[in-house]
Request: fold
Amino acid sequence: MDCKMFSSMIDDYLDDALPEEQRALFLAHAAECKICQSKLEHAQNMLEALRGRAADVPDFVTPAIGKIRRRSGVRKKRIAAFAGIAAALLISSIFLLENMNLYATKDMAMAQNECAGGYTSEDCALPAEQSEENEQMKYSGASTTYRTFDADILVLEEAQARQLLKFLDGQEIELEPAEGGSYLPIEGVREALLPFFEEND
Reply:
């Protein structure tokens, strides 16, 4: 064994990684060569010094890691708390919106029920004398509702238009042409849209 090979095997010797045969050759060369023997002693002293220093150094890594883990645990708890609060607020607001829509729908249904039989929601708010005029226009025994597509325009079905014209028979009326029918001015409502239909009388 030469000195170059010996130097390359020092680390393996210190780690007890040399096979028995090479270990015997390694120790034999160290006994014969003073330079290699001093290299080996220097490496052994260095290893012992490092092991001693590692034992003397206080362990600051473990407490630091423990502190980090505790902080991350607190942070996770905070995040979980905020997520829970956000979820509760979201669910509450959805619940409130749904209930508001439900009550609004119920109120509209009640208003429509009150106005059934030929009244629009505007008619329900009209003075009593105008409501009486509208009462004369509703079908006898049948309830009906008018469709509105504008706050000031009352859209009538064909049967409703026929009944209105029969009611107004003998009165002078002015119809204005419109898309899909004719406009008829009525007191209390700016105008009513009468659909086109053929007279079968």
User: Anything to note?
Assistant: DSSP finds seven helices and five strands in the chain.
